[in-house]
Amino acid sequence: MAFDKYVKLAGSERQPMPGAKKAGACDPNEQMQVTIVLRERQPKSQHPSVADLVASGERISRTEYEARYGADPQDIKTVEAFAKAHGLPVKQTNPFARSVSLDGTAGAFAEAFQVELSMYEIPGGSYRGRTGALSIPSELHGVVVSVHGLDNRPQATTHFRVAAASAAASTSYTALQVAKAYNFPTSGNGQGQTIGIIELGGGFTQSDLNTYFGSLSISPAPSVTAVSVDGAKNQPTGDTSGPDTEVMLDIEVAGAIAPGAKIVVYFAPNTDAGFLDGINQAVTDKTNQPAVISISWGGAESTWTAQSLQSYNTALQAASAVGVTVCVACGDDGSTDGVTDGLDHVDFPASSPYSLACGGTSLTISGGSIASEVVWNDLPSDGATGGGVSATFPLPSWQTSANVPPSVNPGNFVGRGMPDVAGDADPSTGYEVQVDGSQFTVGGTSAVAPLWAGLLTLLNQALGKSVGYLNPGLYQSIHSASNAFRDITSGNNGDYKAGPGWDACSGWGSPDGAAILQALSSATTVNPPPTPDPKPKPKPSPKPKPKPAPKPKPKPKSAPKPKPKPKSAPKPKPKPKPAPKPKPKPKPAPKPKPKPKSAPKPKPKPKPAPKPKPKPKRLHRK
Questions:
Q1: Distance between CA atoms of 512 and 185, rounded to whole angstroms?
Q2: 246 is annotated as an active-site residue
Q3: Which end of the chain has a smaller Cβ tally under 10 Å, C or N?
Q4: Model confidence over 74-128: pLDDT tens digits?
């Protein structure tokens, strides 16, 4: 193969980070690593596609997944030949994740992918970046889905908020107090289960863990193991305002709720390639085999390339196929997700339909029970729960009866609504943590992802099997089970308001763990059609719109439940066919392509399109 004729790689377009200044050419001798994601192998006739497998509710082993849907050996050989032709050694192949990792110099990679690599300066640092699209040899067209790592900008940010020391009305709880208020099952401790946690920086110390768990009379402390991905390691910075606090919050909340479970922390670089490799490492880990994964990092959908949105979504779909639940924080900047373009945004990877998107509330506990709970919103002075409507992922079939509103952005795209569930996230009613020798209170949706990961671990132990891909069952039957959720009906996150039932700032609400266990034990779920695959497009500069000032967060009251308010969010006009019961209609696949923002279109066509054939697809301090 000559590898001398090139074509553009669709969805690979990049722009500099906002405020970045080009500082010159990249050192051509700089050593770097790049991850190439390949197409899904065509399954044999007796096997369904991955999308159909997941939609059926079936799950298979990691070994079986690799055999059915892993990379085609011939595709791997083609990429290896391309790498050899450019002097790029193959560092690792992961057939399950359909990825090939290459080592080499910046100069060699720039030539191989016909791209200019430059250095950019940003506040607090610099990064190696590129602009425009990548090119690949024609021999790789249709074989290569995405290329990650040429650009090493920080891709994601943490979603924690430290409580202000001066906040007079603030209070704090231990994770155990929150779990008790949410009526988590008490018959087990997670024994025999494994929780995976993805971290993109920072680290933990055993002394801090011993101190924290000792203060809760949990002895011995849970087993915590660090796994290195792409050279990243457990490296505490000693700075409580940095990623150490994220790492410790995640471990301490999940570990307090399920102290008998093994916790495996996958440390990966905070880059587009590193984050993806970290998720794939956890999903494909045949040694530790986590059944629940917690992710508290992310970034607005608009900050990702289209190829990354696809490949990350594919990795999360693979997790669903092998029975792994992935709990992801929704972000801490309200309905804009911290983007200042005048539009609303949602956080990714929480917005993937294969993520259990976790939103935030402000919780008041009295006498061990919930006295009040409202949507967390401390804007404009501090944070608020993320949530809203995806501009990338179409409305999943299992969400068609949830009354997800159309986006408030121009064009009113009807997309995947989030969050799915909620939990205490307000720093003023936050969690007591031990980080770098200090004790203080932390909130943010970063706490809700490990909270739900801990709960799901207890559920898996009690059920004797993993819950796996929870979303279809959650929307079809579990949410309606008696007392399974505390409906949050007061508050907003900016443009989306809480109301009875599902809403785009608190999902179905906060959990009653024991009631959810009962619902899972007895529920019969009708399998929905496959979730439509995204066909994300680069986001052109949108037309700004004025942002309404968010309403102040309602004061917690001693009343057992806030008085419900009706939703003010408009009902979607392109409404999917309603069903008499929360059971989705077959094949309501929405239009798979999100609207381009440069010239907002009217409304998405309400008429469902035929389900597209799944294609191979394959997170920033704000």
A1: 9
A2: yes
A3: N
A4: 999 999 999 999 999 999 999 999 999 999 999 999 999 999 999 999 998 999 9
